[in-house]
Write a structure and sequence with these properties.
Elements: E1 8-12, H1 24-36, E2 41-45, E3 59-62, E4 65-68, H2 70-79, E5 82-83, E6 86-87, H3 97-124, H4 126-140, H5 149-163, H6 192-220, H7 233-246, H8 254-262, H9 264-277, E7 283-285, H10 313-379
Parallel strand pairs: 1-2, 2-7
Antiparallel strand pairs: 1-3, 3-4, 5-6
Helix pairs in contact: 1-2, 1-7, 1-9, 3-4, 3-5, 3-7, 6-8, 7-9, 8-9
Length: 380
């Protein structure tokens, strides 16, 4: 679909749960553009981060410029004087030099720590992954990517969550499900020690998240916004993360319950930001996903900014497992095509042979009838 050259085109992960994007950075970028340039930008949904120069979403295209990552997008837009005849306000101009420095620090803090919390709810908790997140990610992908890319996306977050202490879940949720494994008819009774360990680990996650929520609640205080009672980047970024923790219908609402029961202040702040910045009449382009050949074999880059651990044997084994699954899918698809072609050829050959035999039988019957007719004539 052609775009007006002067308009900004923001490429983001698609949305769900009545949110325009499933990714916190993409969601924050949408809120920022809606705040400074309402109706002067287009959202183009994208599920292939290879199109981005940094391999990450969101990225912005404007005339001949392409800008990637949320901080770079904000910096680029804030330096524009006008877009389609409309002046671009600098929402950070009201801040003092000290507040600007503090704002930069809090933006980094929210992106790292709240990003870990959202990723934990999305990718670490087994029930949330299998029942809430994976179905949405699979629906966004074309065939065959939908069969293996969601699991690869989840695996890309594992080193980051392990480093933050938000992945090592005990008991049932720690056991990796092996694809195509035979179900066991014998159900082992739950070990009491494992049960206590699981409860203890969940409490540790709650305490870690609560300490983080307490920090932001104290920073906000009784104010409507964090700085100068005006919506800034810090408000947008925190509101995007809080919204992604409260809007989905999680199968395991571990931290969602903590927020709703003890931090209504942060939820109200998020609602205040969204009421001011939520896109209403923004044009959303649902482009057909186009994938490079590399995307069939390589890991998506959208989580490449997360810390990566050194190549351990466990990590290599996991990557090899997904490689075998991917090539197994290709082999199965190829074998199915060959089998179908062979079966079709055999069926056609059999049909032709039957037709030829039928024609020969008819010819023999005609000859027999002609011979009998000649004999009758001679007898007469």
């Amino acid at each position: 679909m052609p775009h007006t050259p002067s308009l900004l085109v923001l490429h983001t992960w698609p949305g769900c749960w009545d949110l325009p994007s499933i990714d916190p950075s993409c969601l924050a970028a949408i809120l920022y553009l809606q705040l400074v340039l309402p109706d002067k930008y287009i959202i183009e949904e994208c599920t292939n981060p290879d199109f981005s120069p940094s391999g990450q979403l969101p990225f912005l295209s404007h005339e001949m410029q392409i800008v990637s990552t949320l901080p770079s997008i904000i910096k680029y837009v804030s330096k524009l004087k006008k877009v389609d005849g409309v002046s671009v306000p600098d929402i950070g101009s009201v801040l003092s030099p000290a507040e600007r420095a503090t704002s930069v620090a809090w933006i980094s803090h929210i992106s790292t720590n709240m990003g870990d919390i959202v990723a934990h709810m999305f990718y670490s908790l087994e029930d949330n992954w299998t029942k809430t997140i994976r179905p949405h990610l699979a629906a966004m992908q074309p065939i065959p990517q939908r069969y293996y890319l969601p699991d690869r996306i989840r695996a890309s977050y594992r080193p980051r969550l392990e480093a933050a202490g938000l992945w090592n879940l005990p008991g049932i949720e720690q056991q990796e499900k092996k694809p195509f494994a035979k179900p066991s008819a014998k159900i082992e009774p739950e070990n009491l020690k494992d049960k206590y360990v699981r409860v203890f680990e969940r409490q540790k996650v709650e305490e870690k998240a609560s300490a983080l929520f307490d920090l932001y609640a104290r920073l906000l205080g009784d104010k409507e916004y964090f700085f100068q009672n005006q919506c800034t980047i810090v408000d947008l970024l925190l509101a995007a993360h809080i919204r992604l923790l409260t809007k989905p219908q999680f199968a395991d609402p571990l931290l969602q319950t903590v927020l709703q029961e003890r931090y209504s202040q942060l939820i109200e702040h998020s609602g205040r930001v969204f009421s001011q910045t939520s896109p209403r009449d923004v044009r959303i382009v649902k482009s057909n996903p186009v994938y490079s050949t590399k995307s069939l074999f390589a890991l998506p880059h959208h989580a490449s900014s997360t810390p990566r651990s050194s190549g351990s044997d466990e990590k290599k084994a996991e990557e090899w497992k997904y490689t075998k699954m991917r090539w197994g899918w290709f082999a199965l698809a190829g074998a199915s095509i060959v089998f179908y072609a062979i079966r079709s050829g055999i069926a056609e050959a059999s049909a032709e042979e039957e037709m030829d035999e039928g024609d020969e039988d008819e010819d023999e019957e005609d000859e027999d009838e002609e011979g009998e007719g000649e004999e009758e004539e001679k007898h007469i």
